[in-house]
Structure formats: structure tokens, C-alpha cells
Write a structure and sequence with these properties.
- By secondary structure, the protein is α+β, with helices and mostly antiparallel strands.
- 63% of the residues lie in helices and 9% in strands.
- The chain has 10 helices and 6 strands, in the order H-H-H-H-H-H-H-H-E-H-E-E-H-E-E-E.
- A 6-stranded mixed beta sheet has the order 1-2-3-5-4-6, with helices on one face.
- Helix 2 runs antiparallel to helix 3, helix 2 packs parallel to helix 4 and helix 9 runs antiparallel to helix 10.
- The chain is elongated.
- It starts with 5 loop residues before the first helix and ends in a 6-residue tail after the last strand.
Length: 437
């Protein structure tokens, strides 16, 4: 069962934001097709009717290609919130020139609206948007009025009757397109704000947790350290005149220090939780970088989170011992669920067993160090045991057995796929909880 780390969650959120950005951009690109196709159709109709020649045909096609390129740049820059004036002016000149093709047919009426739909994606106030729509509507009204007199000379309406209606019509169409595009851009901004707010909340939560953690440590250590300082000073003063009392005071110092250490370990257990999947991957990389071939068995499914965290610490300590205290060339990490262990095993009933083997023991020393002692205490909290000792002629085995709650279903798979119980140790050393280095 894969466990998502904080980095994984952040990466997933960034991928979702980038995916929505691409979807938004592509939707504007699809809309561009609806603007370009009427222009191409109107150009083909004008060429068929003999209203334009080949030079004009080529120029208009090139102009439509340039306008489409400018549209894509304006959309991309608008979504990023930084549109240059040069792009706006350059694309506006191209759109205005192409709009003159309305003199040959009404299909080119979409060109100025097409340009406005891209320009309004840039950050701007309502006043500028209204001015942009009104100016575009007035320009289109002028060109359309001239086109109406040229294309429909038999009409009875005068230009001063047609012009206000066309201006209002084009302004209204521009306003509708602007509303739709601004709404879609606002949805993109909301996604950005949600992503930024999530990141800000995460940083705030980390800051608050650090403050709480510092207060907890102050409360835990303040009294204990004050007691240790007073007792130590008293022992120093009485060591010559009353050695027995000094010894009693130092015993109190030792007990206070151990109690403070126990409280600190209990307090930071949640803060220092490690993830089993990430630890296995990290250990493999570290061992192989050190020249140790690492084999890792299949990871059982459905392990409780607290068991996964403890086993991750055992793996980390085992890999540290392999690198620092051995000359191993091979290391095998196996993890399996055992059902109804035999009486000779460390535990009875269902349990998960982790074994870390290596083949490079230095000397015959197998005494528990501080790291192994700390692991013993972690495992003992869950009712488990740690076994460490020689394995074979030159090997060393670190074994952790942690009981599991009863679960119905198939066995998860034993060490290196065996599925059977047994330690396989040679002269193993069981480390009870509370042993010292």
C-alpha cells in the first residue's frame, strides 16, 4: 500500500493546477477556430464572386495566420497576467486591416470581436473594457455602414439611420463575448487563488505546529533540567563531606535525565514519523551508493500506520549499522506477516516480522548501542521485540517482530516471499525494553 508523502501531495496539487491551465488555454484555442473559419469562408466567397484577386487573397490568409498567432500569445499572456502593449497594438492593427474585408461580405464581422475576446483577458478595469467595446463597436459600425451602402445600394435606409443600430449591435456582441471570456478567466484565477491559499495554510500550519512543539519541549524540559542543575550542584558541594548523599543526589539526577529523555521521545514520536515506502527506497539508494547490493522483499498490504512507522525506523537503523559497523557486500531486507507463530518464536499469534541481514560482521561484538536501544523502546510500545545477533559465519541479523490485530484474509507473504515463521538466527540476542547501551 503506497503512502503519499507531503512532497507527493504538493506535486499532485501542482499537476492539477497545470492541467486546468492547459484545459483553459485549449478552450480558448478551440474558440479561435470559430472565429477564423467564418473569415476563411468569407474570403473564399469574395474570391469566387471576383471581389478580390490573388494578391488580396494571399494577404488576407497571411493576415488571418498572423492574427491567430497574436491571439494565442494574448491568451497565454492574459492567463499569466502580463500582456505587453506591443502585442495589443500590433494585433489591433492586423484586426483593423482585416476588418476592412467587411466591404466584400458580412463574414469578416467576427474578426474585430475575435481580437477583443483575447485583449480583455489581460488585467484591466471596467472603464477600459467599456471603452474597448465601445471603440470596437464604433469602428465596426463605420465599416459596416459603408459596406451596407456598397453591397446594398438599392436600400432605402440612410446611413445616419443604419450607423447607430450597427454600432449598438457590434458593441453588444463585443460585450457578450467579453463577459464570457472574463468569466472563464475568473474561474482560472479562482483555481490559482485556491492553490496559493492551500500553500499558505500549509505554511501557517507548520508554523503553528512548530510553536506548539517548542512550547511542549519547554514545558517538558524546563522542570527536569532545573532539577538536574540543582541536584548536580548539591552533589558537587557534598561529594567530599557526605559521599553517600552525593551519590543519592546523582542517582536522582540520573533518574530525572532518563525521565526527561523518555518524555522527549514520547513527544517527538509523532513529529519524527517516517514512511515505510519512502524509507525502503532511500535505504536501497544509500546502500547501493556505498557498494552494498540490496535486496528487498515484497511489502505486505494493510499494515497499520503505527506499525509501518516503527518498521521504517528499524530499517533506517539497520542500514546505518550496515554502513558504519560492517564490511558487508550484500544486504537483504525482508518483511512478512506471520499467522499463529510457533511457541519457539519471539511472539505468539499474528505478527509482522522484519529482518535485515548482511554478510560483513566486524569482530564478535553484538552489544546493543544507543540506536538499537531506542529502537527497542519504540517496538516495545507496540508490544513487540527486537532480536539482534550473528547469522551464519560472517552474517548479522536484525529482526523486529510486532504483533498485529486479528485480520481475516490471506497471508501477506513471508520474508523474501517464504510466508513461513522462524527467525533463522544464530546465537540471537533478545533486547528487552529498557535495556541500556
Amino acid at each position: 500500500m503506497a503512502v503519499a508523502t507531503t512532497a507527493d501531495i504538493e506535486e499532485q496539487a501542482a499537476r492539477k493546477l497545470e492541467r486546468y491551465r492547459r484545459v483553459t488555454y485549449r478552450s480558448f484555442m478551440f474558440a479561435a477556430v470559430g472565429f477564423i473559419l467564418p473569415g476563411l469562408y468569407g474570403l473564399e466567397d469574395a474570391y469566387t464572386n471576383g471581389d478580390v484577386g490573388v494578391p488580396v487573397l494571399v494577404a488576407v490568409v497571411a493576415g488571418l495566420a498572423v492574427l491567430a498567432w497574436c491571439y494565442a500569445r494574448l491568451v497565454r499572456a492574459g492567463l499569466e497576467g502580463a500582456v505587453s502593449r506591443r502585442n495589443v497594438v500590433g494585433s489591433g492593427v492586423v484586426a483593423a486591416a482585416l476588418s476592412l474585408m467587411m466591404l466584400t461580405g458580412p463574414w469578416f464581422s467576427v474578426i474585430p470581436v475575435f481580437w477583443v475576446s483575447a485583449v480583455v483577458l489581460a488585467p484591466m478595469g471596467r472603464g477600459r473594457i467599456v471603452a474597448l467595446c465601445a471603440g470596437t463597436g464604433a469602428y465596426c459600425g463605420v465599416v459596416a455602414t459603408v459596406a451596407a451602402g456598397r453591397l446594398y445600394p438599392e436600400g432605402d435606409a440612410h446611413w445616419y439611420e443604419i450607423f447607430p443600430v450597427l454600432c449598438a449591435l457590434y458593441t453588444a456582441v463585443c460585450g457578450f463575448v467579453v463577459f464570457v471570456n472574463r468569466y472563464q478567466r475568473r474561474m482560472w484565477e479562482l483555481h490559482q487563488e485556491a492553490y496559493e491559499a492551500r500553500d499558505a495554510l500549509a505554511r501557517l500550519a507548520v508554523t503553528e505546529e512548530r510553536l506548539r512543539f517548542s512550547r511542549d519541549l519547554h514545558d517538558l524540559l524546563g522542570h527536569s533540567l532545573s532539577l538536574i542543575a540543582v541536584k548536580s550542584e548539591l552533589a558537587r558541594r557534598t561529594v567530599r563531606d557526605d559521599p553517600d548523599r552525593a551519590g543519592a543526589e546523582m542517582a536522582d539526577v540520573q533518574r530525572a535525565a532518563r525521565e526527561a529523555l523518555r518524555e522527549v521521545r514520547a513527544a517527538v514520536r509523532g513529529y519524527r514519523a517516517v514512511e515505510l515506502d519512502a524509507e525502503l527506497a532511500g535505504v536501497r539508494a544509500v546502500l547501493e551508493a556505498a557498494g552494498v547490493r540490496c535486496e528487498i522483499g515484497r511489502l505486505p498490504d494493510g499494515l497499520p500506520p503505527e506499525v509501518r512507522s516503527v518498521l521504517a525506523w528499524v530499517i533506517r537503523e539497520g542500514a546505518t549499522n550496515v554502513i558504519k559497523h560492517s564490511e558487508a557486500r550484500n544486504c537483504a531486507i525482508s518483511l512478512g506477516v506471520y499467522r499463529d507463530s510457533a511457541p519457539g518464536d519471539a511472539l505468539h499469534g499474528d505478527s509482522v516480522v522484519l529482518e535485515v541481514r548482511n554478510d560483513g560482521v566486524r569482530g564478535a561484538e553484538t552489544a546493543a548501542g544507543s540506536g538499537l536501544t531506542g529502537l527497542t523502546e519504540r517496538v516495545a510500545v507496540l508490544g513487540g521485540e527486537i532480536t539482534a545477533g550473528r547469522h551464519g559465519r560472517d552474517g548479522f541479523l536484525l529482526r523486529a517482530a510486532v504483533p498485529l490485530p486479528p485480520v481475516d484474509g490471506p497471508v501477506g507473504g513471508g520474508p523474501l516471499g517464504s510466508g513461513q515463521g522462524g527467525t533463522g538466527t544464530d546465537a540471537g540476542q533478545v533486547l528487552p525494553a529498557g535495556s541500556t547501551a
